[in-house]
């Protein structure tokens, strides 16, 4: 058996010296056990430069394998690990322990407005249905083009911000209107409609505007800016919603 080198021992000691004790307070729910959710505390030794997702992994792998949450890429691209951390919607993979006051318990709970299936996992079907309803794809008529549909840099810039959406639901599940009425399309669906409404190559802008003109559409927005604050990609969500409202008003003149 190989003996650890002094460099390895020193490196391990140095790493251990940076660890702090952190309490994760997680909202647990298992419908097979109880109809009520409960809070459960876990104490971890963790480097403050690690992420909340790393802490959840340590809990699941070392302390309680029944803990249930979604994650995939772990690099802020897939959007699957959106959750409420210390009362704010965030991506667990992009939230560092040191940035959220680890001296106090770190509360982790599922995003609001969607049915909780187990622990931190919610039913995303209503969210994705709203996304599908706004037709989030390019619509054109005529024959298939023989070359790429070209677009100027200025035309692309018109909707560039809303192409960044990763469908994490952080914006929609931070919206007070959505909390109280799940029929509302929600910010994410409107953002993805915006992306095509203002695309110069698309021909279904009027159709999407009519969809969002519904009683559960864009007019339900109360401009609280919760969605903009929650977006992990920095999309100006409220601004995009206002632009869709403006398009609905001005299209008749």
UniProtKB/TrEMBL annotation:
Reactions that this protein is recorded to catalyse: a menaquinone + succinate = a menaquinol + fumarate
Keywords: 2Fe-2S, 3Fe-4S, 4Fe-4S, Iron, Iron-sulfur, Metal-binding, Oxidoreductase, Tricarboxylic acid cycle
A GO MF term: 3 iron, 4 sulfur cluster binding
Segments forming domain 4Fe-4S ferredoxin-type: 155-177
Domain 2Fe-2S ferredoxin-type: 20-114
Cofactor binding comment, as recorded: Binds 1 [3Fe-4S] cluster. Binds 1 [2Fe-2S] cluster.
Family annotation (InterPro entries): 2Fe-2S_ferredoxin-like_sf, 2Fe-2S_ferredoxin-type, 4Fe4S_Fe-S-bd, 4Fe4S_Fe_S_CS, Beta-grasp_dom_sf, Helical_ferredxn, SDH/FRD_Iron-Sulfur, Succ_DH/fum_Rdtase_Fe-S
Keyword Oxidoreductase: yes
Names of required cofactors: [3Fe-4S] cluster; [2Fe-2S] cluster; [4Fe-4S] cluster
Uppermost EC category: oxidoreductase
Pathway: Carbohydrate metabolism; tricarboxylic acid cycle
Domain of life: Bacteria
Its EC number(s): 1.3.5.1
GO annotation terms (biological process): respiratory electron transport chain; tricarboxylic acid cycle
NCBIfam families, sorted: dhsB (TIGR00384), PRK05950.1 (NF004616)
Similarity annotation: Belongs to the succinate dehydrogenase/fumarate reductase iron-sulfur protein family.
Protein name: Fumarate reductase iron-sulfur subunit
Organism: Streptomyces typhae
Gene that encodes it: sdhB
């Amino acid at each position: 058996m190989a003996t650890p080198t002094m460099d390895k021992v020193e490196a391990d000691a140095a790493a251990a010296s940076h660890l702090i004790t952190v309490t994760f307070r997680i909202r647990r729910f298992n419908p097979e056990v109880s109809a009520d959710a409960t809070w459960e505390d876990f104490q971890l030794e963790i480097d403050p430069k690690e992420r909340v997702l790393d802490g959840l992994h340590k809990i699941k792998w070392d302390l309680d394998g029944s803990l249930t949450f979604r994650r995939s890429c772990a690099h802020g691209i897939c959007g699957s690990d959106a959750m409420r951390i210390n009362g704010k919607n965030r991506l667990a993979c992009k939230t560092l322990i040191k940035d959220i006051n680890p001296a106090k318990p770190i509360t982790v709970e599922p995003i609001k407005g969607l049915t909780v299936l187990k622990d931190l996992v919610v039913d995303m079907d209503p969210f994705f249905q709203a996304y599908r309803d706004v037709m989030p794809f390019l619509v054109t008529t005529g024959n298939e083009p023989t070359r790429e549909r070209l677009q100027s840099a200025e035309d692309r810039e018109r909707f560039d911000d809303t192409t960044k959406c990763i469908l994490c639901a952080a914006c929609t599940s931070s919206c007070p209107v959505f909390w109280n009425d799940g029929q509302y399309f929600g910010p994410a669906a409107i953002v993805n409609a915006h992306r095509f409404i203002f695309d110069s190559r698309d021909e279904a802008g009027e159709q999407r505007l009519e969809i969002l003109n519904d009683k559960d559409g864009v007019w339900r927005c109360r401009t609280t800016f919760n969605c903009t604050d929650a977006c992990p990609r920095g999309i100006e969500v409220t601004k995009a919603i206002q632009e869709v409202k403006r398009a609905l008003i001005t299209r008749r003149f």
